[in-house]
Design a protein that fits this description.
Length: 297
Amino acid sequence: MAANLRNVQFVSRNIPNLVFIRRGIQNVKHGHRNFTCRAVSRSSRGVMSALTCSRNTRSSPQQLCVPAGANARTMFIQVQETPNPNSLKFVPGVQVLESGTANFPNSQSAYCSPLARNLFRIDGVTGVMFGPNFITVTKTDDEVDWPVLKPDIFASIMDFFASNIPILTEDQPASDTAIDADDDETVAMIKELLETRIRPTVQEDGGDIIFKGFHDGVVKLKLQGACSSCPSSIVTLKSGIENMMQFYIPDVVAVEQVEDEVDEISKTEFEKLEVKLGETHASDSVETGSSTSTKSV
């Protein structure tokens, strides 16, 4: 009997505290639950909801590991801030375009891209641009916050790349900086400078710059993506691009930002719509006030 008691005491001394065992089991379950959530879930939006509610939130730039496709392949999507607070740069870790960029300033221009159409279906998205390895999304001014938009944007990007369909359904136009036989020496130098020195820097910020012409010493450029509505775009043109152009090309007198006719029409129609909505809101307020006064009498 005494020998049995000694054996029991020896065994009890070598058994870890049950509290530590319980904690270890909980940690294992927690880690297993996090792993299986990423590997088993078939719903992109469900996974994004879980990620946005996770305690492991990361500051910008963010890097999220999420499943892509039915076979739960892993996709890393990195989010980078741009100089424009209303634009974010999403880097999916795969090739987006073979070369160049594709800009979609409104939903009407996105007819040739399934991914751009899906992104424009998200309330609050006003612009989309594709680069060789990134996607820039622009939202409305202060009407909706990025934490609200990000889950839907992540889901749209993941679902698209899992579908294996082309990102553009039509051929891209020729590059604006391709040197033509009709270009004079100054225009050729401007295009080469844009392509080799200026455009790569602008694309790092989630934007792009398009050459629209050169006349009487003035270089006309169009800003796209994050740069199109950036508050510091004028400073970028004058202090950065114009100074560099004048340094390398003496014939350049100034650099100006221009907009396409389609962009100007869209802007005009949008302003008309805002005025109309304001008038409707004002008339509704007047009717509400008059009805309240009648009831008071």
